[in-house]
Design a protein that fits this description.
Largest sheet: none
Strand content: under 5%
Radius of gyration: 29 Å
Helix content: 55-70%
Number of helices: 4
Order of helices and strands: HHHH
Structural class: mainly alpha
Number of strands: 0
Distance between the termini: 51 Å
């Protein structure tokens, strides 16, 4: 049984009316209150010591013993090592690997 264009138009109009009716009944979403996040914050605080210990262990296994440097210092260090900030060698290698 083929559906005619008129039938489809009637169905679309009925759907649009139903959606408009439902939108009128829906309540706008409320903004979360500060108290809504309390359980997550409490859990994060409880787990912070374990997370910090795991990160310290991972850093030790990787041989990372110094504090992290900021982006400005990192740029200075890279320039001192001869890295050209305008070079796109890394991107070219990724593209080449995709084409393999």
């Amino acid at each position: 049984m083929a559906t005619t264009l008129e039938e489809l138009e009637k169905r679309v109009i009925a759907l649009e009316q139903e959606v408009a009716k439902l939108r009128g009944q829906a309540e706008p979403p409320r903004k979360p209150l500060a108290g809504d996040y309390a359980p997550m914050l409490r859990k994060a605080r409880e787990q912070q010591a374990a997370i910090s210990a795991a990160v310290a262990e991972a850093y030790a296994k990787m041989g990372i013993t110094t504090a992290p440097v900021g982006p400005e210092k990192l740029r200075e260090m890279m320039l001192a090592d001869g890295v050209d900030p305008n070079d796109n060698a890394f991107s070219r290698e990724i593209i080449a690997m995709r084409e393999e």
